[in-house]
Structure formats: C-alpha cells, structure tokens
Design a protein that fits this description.
Layout: E1 3-7, H1 12-23, E2 27-32, H2 38-41, H3 43-47, E3 55-58, H4 64-74, E4 78-81, H5 88-93, H6 95-116, E5 121-127, H7 150-169, E6 172-178, E7 181-182, H8 191-203, E8 210-212, E9 218-219, E10 222-223, H9 224-235, E11 242-245, E12 251-252, H10 253-263, E13 272-274, H11 292-298, H12 306-326
Parallel strand pairs: 1-2, 1-4, 2-3, 4-5, 5-6, 6-11, 7-10, 8-13
Antiparallel strand pairs: 9-12
The structure holds NADPH dihydro-nicotinamide-adenine-dinucleotide phosphate and guanosine-5'-diphosphate-rhamnose.
C-alpha cells in the first residue's frame, strides 16, 4: 500500500487527512515541530483516535535539512504540504514569520521532494485568500489573484512555486485552492469556532457575551472532512493540476452567528458585541468559489451543508465544555 507524508498533521486538515488516508490503507507519516507543550500538540489526532496509528517525525518546515531527512527516511509516494502560519489576522503582526513558514517553507518541501524523491506526488495547500480583493464575483481557477494580507501574499508565492516546480522539473505537483473549511477541530481563533465555542460557553452559563470584528464579511464555508478528500483525489490524477475547492454558497459572519446561536436556542443579538480591535488592516469582504472543474475532473462535490456543520460544531463545543465543568476529559 501507499505511504503518505503530511506536514501540518497536527492541524485541522492534517488530522482529517491522516484519518482519511489510514482508512484507505495508507501508511501515514507526519512532520511534527517540537513544542514545550508536547502533551497537547496531538490533541486533534487523539480526538479522532488515530494518534497511535500515525508515525511522527521531529522537524520543522523552515529547516530544510529536516525536510530532506524526513523525506529520505519516509520515502513517501504522496506528500501533502499543509503546514503553515495559517491565521490571516496574525500575519499582519508577524509578516516575516508568515513569509518564512508559509512561503519559504513550501519551497523547502518542494526542494526536499525534488532532491530526494522526485517521483513522489506533491500537494500544496493553496487558499482562496489569494483572490482577496475579488476580481470576479465567483472565483475559479481562471480568476486573477489579488492578495490582501501577508498570509495571502505568502500563499501566492507557494502556489506559483508549486506551478513552477511542475513546469520546470516535471514534479507531479498540484495546488488545491481551497475555500474556507471548518469543523469541530478548527482552531479556536478562527471565526466559526470562536462563535461555536462562544455559543457553548453562553449556553452553559460560563460567559454572557462574545466579541467579534467585521460581521459583514462573507465566506464560502465547507466541512474539512469533505475538503481533504479533494486533496487526495488531486494526487490520483495522471496529470498534476490546480483546482478550486468550494461549496458555491457564501454566508455572512452575522448569519453564521444567527444560525449557531439559534441551534442552541439563543438569540445572537443578545450576546454578540463588536470591537474595532478585531478588524483587519485590509479585509477580504466576499469569497464565493466555483468548484466546477474539480467536480468534472475529480468527481468531487461538497456534501455537508452549512446547517449540518454548524450543528455539529455547536454540539461538540457544548460536549467539550460540559465535560470540563464535570471534570471529565472531553475526548
Ligand atoms: P492549522 O492552522 O490548523 O494547521 C497548521 C499546521 O501547520 C499545524 O499542524 C502546525 O503545527 C503546522 N505548522 C505551523 N508552522 C510550522 C512549522 N514551522 N513547521 C512545521 N509545521 C508547522 O491549519 P488548517 O489545518 O486549517 O489548514 C491546513 C493548510 O491549508 C494550511 O496551510 C492553511 O493555510 C491552508 N488552508 C486552510 C484553509 C481552511 O479553511 N482551513 C483554506 C485554505 C487553505 P502546530 O500544531 O505545531 O501549530
Ligand atoms: P479567514 O478566516 O481569514 O477567512 O482565513 P477567519 O475565520 O479568521 O476570518 C473569517 C472572516 O471573519 C471575520 N471576523 C473574524 N475573524 C476572526 N478570526 N475572529 C473574529 O473575532 C472575527 N470577527 C469577524 C474576519 O475579519 C474575516 O473576514 C481562513 C484560514 O483558515 C486561512 O488559513 C485560509 O487560507 C482561509 O480561511 C481560506
């Protein structure tokens, strides 16, 4: 059976992708950066019950020698480069770190594959943030990019490096231009999880208000479990290519709040407050993707509705906080 190497395996997508590949019979390896809080680093892999089924290797995306060493040791058939400084808001405060990890880190992995394992298939986690100040109302692979944050600029570099390594060196390197995808394993700083966590706290009497920034922005939100399947499907194609992955429905932050609070029997207007401190220096106001190419070529389409995902996220956060109140582990 095949062997996969996932960078960013401890993140939301890395955990779901690892689970998906294990179910397909893959041997799954992951690059793990050292942390002083080692006991919480594998939380998502533990949540999915797979921490003992993946093989983790110490390394860091910004350390080329560790990337080379791990690719050499693992000899992967497929490499999924998901590691990144992925929080747009933080990228305005840490633009150089974001560039080093999110842009040059991808170049490191491309170099490691080119030098050590050029026959491996490579997936780059590109982003709808690259469309930024949108140039077309519905964004597809043909829509020009206009990045609006240091994060998006870094992703654009990584995206074009992936295209360049495909064209220059013949690597089977594909980019998935993924629109926002969420889940109960989403990082707490991202708006959907911040909202569902807030709903759970308010429902259980642990808090009364939730502070947010821009409520008018809209996002094309899908479920991470659906989206990781598209990553895999791209690497099964004979020819590497780039694909937009999206649901084709866009929803405002305000409407997401309404849905999440309503699921718990609450009125969002009683609890949500806004603060200018949470606004971004430049904002991506609207994103709406056309995944027609992926649908035709990969047979992929989003299957989880936003309503189902909101319900799953709110219910899971209520379970998590209830367990904490009762002094039980949530997993
Ligand atoms: P997360 O932020 O949840 O995960 C990021 C992962 O990268 C974590 O495993 C993190 O490790 C790891 N990482 C960060 N810096 C380094 C480093 N220097 N060396 C090694 N590993 C590192 O992101 P998601 O799972 O949500 O996203 C996966 C990828 O897809 C990212 O590249 C993101 O930018 C991109 N993307 C995500 C979308 C989304 O909506 N989720 C949409 C489009 C693109 P640690 O656990 O130690 O912090
Ligand atoms: P995004 O996700 O920037 O789209 O990047 P995020 O959830 O952070 O923001 C979405 C929108 O919500 C608005 N917003 C808030 N955002 C956060 N985080 N916190 C708040 O309190 C808040 N209030 C309003 C934001 O201004 C924004 O408009 C995500 C990441 O996963 C990237 O890595 C990925 O590439 C893109 O999605 C596609």
């Amino acid at each position: 059976m095949k062997t996969a190497l996932i960078t960013g395996i401890t993140g939301q997508d890395g955990a779901y992708l690892a689970s998906f590949l294990l179910d397909k019979g893959y041997t799954v390896h992951g690059l793990l950066r050292r942390s002083a809080s080692a006991e919480i680093i594998g939380e998502r892999l533990r949540w999915l019950g797979i921490i003992d089924r993946v093989k983790l290797h110490d390394g860091d995306l910004i350390d080329l020698s560790s990337c080379i060493r791990i690719v050499e040791a693992v000899k992967p058939d497929e490499v999924y480069n998901l590691a990144a400084q992925s929080f747009v808001h933080a990228s305005f405060q840490q633009p150089l770190l974001t560039g080093t990890v999110t842009a040059l880190g991808a170049a490191n992995m491309l170099e490691a594959v080119r030098i050590v394992r050029p026959e491996a298939r490579f997936y780059q986690a590109s982003s709808s943030e690259m469309f930024g100040k949108i140039q077309e109302p519905i964004q597809s692979e043909r829509t020009p990019f206009y990045p609006r944050s240091p994060y998006a600029v870094a992703k654009l570099y990584a995206h074009w490096m992936t295209v360049n390594y495909r064209e220059s060196f013949g690597l089977h390197a594909s980019s998935g231009i993924l629109f926002n995808h969420e889940s109960p394993l989403r990082g707490i700083e991202f708006v959907t999880r911040k909202v569902t966590d807030g709903v759970a706290r308010i429902k259980l009497g642990l808090a009364d208000t939730l502070m947010l920034g821009n409520l008018d922005a809209t996002r094309d939100w899908g479920h991470a479990r659906d989206f990781v399947q598209a990553m895999w499907a791209m690497l099964q194609q004979d020819v590497a290519d780039d694909y937009v992955i999206a649901t084709g429905r866009t929803t405002s932050i305000r409407e997401f709040c309404r849905m999440a609070f309503a699921h718990a029997g609450l009125d969002w207007q009683d609890h949500v407050r806004t603060s200018d401190a949470l606004l971004r220096p430049s904002e991506v106001e609207v994103l709406l993707g056309d995944a027609g190419k992926a649908n035709q070529a990969l047979g992929w389409r989003a299957t989880t509705t936003l309503e189902q995902m909101v319900a799953e996220m709110v219910d899971t956060d209520i379970v998590r906080h209830s367990a904490r109140i009762a002094g039980r582990p949530a997993v």
